[in-house]
Design goal:
The complex is a heterodimer of chains A (about 600) and B (about 250). Chain A is an alpha+beta fold and about 600 residues long. In chain B, the strands form 4 sheets. In chain B, strands 1-8 form a two-stranded antiparallel ribbon. In chain B, strands 2-3 form a two-stranded antiparallel sheet. Chain B is globular, with a radius of gyration of 20 Å. The chains are: A alpha+beta (about 600), B alpha+beta (about 250).
């Protein structure tokens, strides 16, 4: 086992919550070169440690908090990756979010944090450099995310700590509970909140002052990092994101692309978007921009509501996804109420996207008569009814009453329970709600929704190449805004130029693509082990059946030809067969041969 | 930068290309001047050159300013500082840092280069381990004579509560203005220049800021800034509907 030359320390912090102990788990250079870090390393751990059918809520199930070789360097990398087997979908899932947490983990001297076990009483972890303290979280238990975050800062007496916490939703085991990082950022699409809650882990605070990331060839690396940063500062591509965040996309996607979801995917035409979109936010809400570590793009916007019922509410957003799912998806026309819904989800620690999907689905089901107010403890959701939605969010977070428990299951399970034709408008892929891009208007987004490991995730890459590049970006762990969304396929050169001097590697651009495909295929093996194949790589029925009734993409529908084309291109690019199963030759080519037997066993078991 | 030599101020004049890249930041600086001192921006521009603006002559650094509401909290100043002084990206060693206040505002905490320098007055060694460079106003630490963590009288004396200890040696981290060409200002100018203008700026004259800001601790500054930006909610609290009393634990 060789130690890494640069970029990584070669050690992951392994924490056992059951025994309240911690130790260093060494990672070899060979593994890091193959799986990079973050999402890739998480997939590797799942591949080698989990058997098929592993219960995600077992005591020894892990949550991997991954960072990459570039985190904490000058290379413009600031995201943190969370990997776990997900009780919501039953698959291995990953989610990423920005802020300063990743570099802090690096400065504390770790390449990642691997958490297993289950505490008897609620705990939170204080990680300061090499030391881990298990602290009592019984006072924090039940508190909203920002209160828990404040309490951690108070107890550590250090405002510079970076935190990740769960809210009441995670504690109560809501299946789509998220993690909230540093108060305003959320890692949600892996639903790690419920796993944290099951482990009785309220949160983690990290402070790193001791280490700097080792660099193999400093001068060369700084030059390459400088080129990347210059492009990001000068590139015209992100002028809009700098000014508007992703909130500005709401108008753009509505008026130009015709892909802004509206009222549970009924249409994409919603002229009232001007009342709740980016321009309204710019006029009446936003006050300042905030950035992740070392990033010139500062896409996070903070604002304050200045009048009305929610006057004085300091909140973040709307982003495209949160504004779409909790705004246009619910037919909202009042900006303040939408922001309050977004903020309530963040405070309770709920995934904005899944929560919006649940509320939208129930409203349509109520409209169509599939459910009655009696089924929801007297709640009667209807479009643009902010107060009822707020009450529903609260009941979900606390799983209050019959309705709360029912809604906390998510759209797929609710639809199955209700029946009555609701599956026609239950919009999920692989058991997860879709994000705010309607795949009929934005067909290339269907790659991300269907082919991505998470399913229903908007951020898995649009197109076969992008699927691979996202796998790489999430393993590195870098932001797609600063990488391949800026450079397109040219990201391979920029990335290898930075990686080679940083880690002392000798990568060519082909090696970049092999690593992309290896990581994505490794995750596919994990999915196939659970019985996933091409039959699951499909959009919700609504996308194939119902034409868009209005808007720039009027009468467009996602056809079977589109589906076939997408499958052929993706499976072909990664070297999988027509059913979406990686072939033996592919596994050998990517160095994944130890898993051939397992794959064959799964093929036999599920008759694929 | 590589050999940690202080950059030659005059040599900078020849590398115009760097200056040309910074054109976009000129407007931001002009606004900042008018905001700070009430001096007519055009006259000030003509009289005192501005860093990063093409066609102006660089000067020896005297003071730095922070247009606090422009700070995005990206910490590029911290990275640039530690890279210049230690050749590595490690914000814990930076001589400027970003303090958070309730995570809704970011406050750049930096040395104001007070004219009377209470930190130097407080230094117990003879001769003082801290000295002021008369040309640039930078404060230079003599690492050989500094008593380090057991003393830190400078930290107590600092009116802005700016001085931190070096996590490795325990000695104070204090700003030397990079010999007249502060890297933090450069990094901020080019990085945060869009769309609201840069936060950090350097000028040869204090225009009153030096006295006005120095008594303000990071926490007070954060509170003030939150008040200023997020009025009417001074505490930055979230409004969350009250918890139901009937809920049961899991």
């Amino acid at each position: 086992m060789t130690a890494p030359k640069g970029g990584n320390f070669g050690k992951v912090l392994e924490i056992d919550l059951s025994k309240q102990t911690y130790k260093t788990r060494p990672v070899s250079e060979e593994i890091l070169q193959k799986y990079i870090g973050g999402r890739g390393l998480g997939a590797y751990y799942a591949l080698t440690e989990y058997k098929a059918g592993k219960n995600p809520l077992d005591e020894d199930a892990f949550v991997f908090i991954g960072v990459g070789p570039m985190s904490g360097t000058m290379a413009l990398s600031h995201r943190t990756c969370f990997v776990n087997k997900n009780p919501y979908t039953g698959n291995i899932n990953h989610s990423e979010c920005g802020a300063h947490l990743a570099s802090e983990i690096k400065f504390a001297g770790w390449d990642g944090i691997y958490i297993k076990g289950r505490a008897r009483k609620p705990v939170w972890l204080a990680i300061v450099n090499d030391k881990v303290e298990f602290k009592d979280a019984s006072k924090m238990w039940g508190k909203t995310t920002e209160t828990a975050h404040e309490m951690m800062i108070k107890e550590m007496k250090d405002p510079e700590i970076r935190t990740v916490v769960i809210g009441p939703a995670g504690e109560n085991g809501v299946l789509y509970a998220c993690l909230v990082v540093e108060r305003f950022r959320a890692a949600a699409r892996s639903d790690t909140g419920s796993v944290f809650g099951d482990k009785k882990l309220k949160g983690i605070a990290v402070r790193g002052t001791k280490y700097a990331v080792p660099v193999a060839d400093n001068a060369k690396f700084l030059a390459a990092a400088r080129v990347n940063k210059e492009n990001n500062m000068r590139g015209e591509a992100w002028e809009g994101i700098k000014k508007w965040g992703t909130g500005g996309l709401m108008e753009l996607k509505h008026f130009l692309h015709g892909s802004l979801i509206t009222k549970n995917f009924q249409t994409t035409w919603y002229p009232d978007v001007v009342k709740i979109g980016g321009e309204e936010a710019m006029r009446t809400f936003w006050k300042r921009h905030a950035a992740c570590t070392n990033c010139p793009t500062h896409c996070l916007k903070l604002g304050v509501i200045r009048s009305g019922k929610y006057a004085g509410l300091v909140a973040e957003g709307p982003e495209y996804e949160s504004g779409g799912l909790l705004g246009t998806n619910l037919g909202m026309t009042k900006f303040d109420e939408m922001i309050a819904l977004i903020e309530a989800c963040d405070a309770y620690g709920l995934d904005n996207i899944s929560t919006g999907g649940v509320l939208g689905f129930l409203t349509e089901a109520m409209e169509k008569g599939a459910i009655k107010p009696a089924d929801l403890d007297g709640l009667k959701p209807k479009w643009d009814d902010g107060d009822t939605y707020m009450e529903m969010i609260r009941r979900i977070a606390y799983k209050e009453g019959k309705a709360g428990k029912f809604m906390a299951q998510g759209v797929a399970r609710m639809s199955k329970q209700i029946g009555k034709g609701t599956e026609a408008y239950a919009c999920t892929v692989k058991g997860r709600e879709l994000a705010a891009h309607d795949p009929r208007g934005d067909k290339i987004r269907a790659y991300s929704y269907t082919m991505g490991t998470n399913g229903g995730d908007h951020h898995e890459g649009q197109g076969p190449q992008a699927l691979g590049m996202t796998a790489m970006a999430d393993s590195l762990v870098i932001c797609s805004f600063t990488n391949f969304l800026l450079y397109g396929a040219g990201a391979d050169k920029i990335t290898t130029d930075m990686l080679n001097p940083l880690c002392g590697w000798d990568w060519k651009t082909e090696d970049y693509w092999t690593a992309c495909k290896r990581i994505f295929t490794a995750e596919r093996i994990l999915l196939v082990r659970e019985g996933v194949s091409s039959k699951d790589d499909r959009l919700p029925i609504r996308m194939y059946r119902e034409k868009l009734p209005a808007g720039p993409r009027k009468d467009v529908v996602f056809t079977d030809a589109d589906q076939k084309d997408m499958e052929a291109k993706t499976y072909g690019f990664f070297g999988w067969d027509a059913k979406g199963i990686p072939t033996e030759a592919t596994l050998k080519a990517y160095g994944l041969d130890p898993f051939i037997d397992e794959l064959n066993a799964a093929k036999k078991k599920y008759n694929l | 930068m590589e050999d940690k030599k202080l950059p030659d101020v005059l040599k900078k004049e020849t590398s115009r290309r760097d200056f040309l890249r910074g054109t976009a930041t000129a407007a931001g600086s002009a606004i900042a001047i008018s905001a700070i001192g009430g001096i007519a921006p055009k006259k000030a521009e003509a009289q005192y050159s501005v860093q990063g603006v093409p066609g102006t002559k660089p000067y020896a650094q005297k003071y730095r300013f922070a247009e606090r509401q422009n700070c995005t909290g990206c910490r590029s100043c911290e990275f640039a500082c530690s890279l210049f002084h230690y050749g590595t990206a490690r914000p814990a060693l930076a001589r400027i840092y970003i303090a958070k206040y309730k995570d809704i505002v970011d406050v750049p905490v930096m040395c104001w280069h007070c004219d009377d320098a209470p930190c130097i007055k407080a230094c117990p060694t003879t001769p003082n381990s801290l000295t002021k460079d008369p040309k640039t106003n930078g404060i230079i630490l003599n690492e050989k004579t500094c008593l380090g963590a057991k003393c830190m009288k400078c930290q107590e004396a600092c009116p802005a509560k700016y001085i931190r200890g070096n996590p490795d040696t325990g000695q104070p981290l204090i700003c030397d203005l990079c010999g007249g060409d502060p890297q933090c200002v450069k990094a901020c100018m080019e990085q945060a220049g869009n769309p609201q203008g840069p936060c950090l700026q350097g000028r040869p004259l204090g225009i009153g800021v030096n006295m006005a800001f120095r008594e303000v601790t990071p926490e007070q500054a954060g509170k003030d800034l939150a008040n200023l930006l997020f009025y009417p909610n001074v505490e930055g609290k979230r409004v969350v509907p009250a918890k139901s009393k009937t809920r049961k634990g899991r």
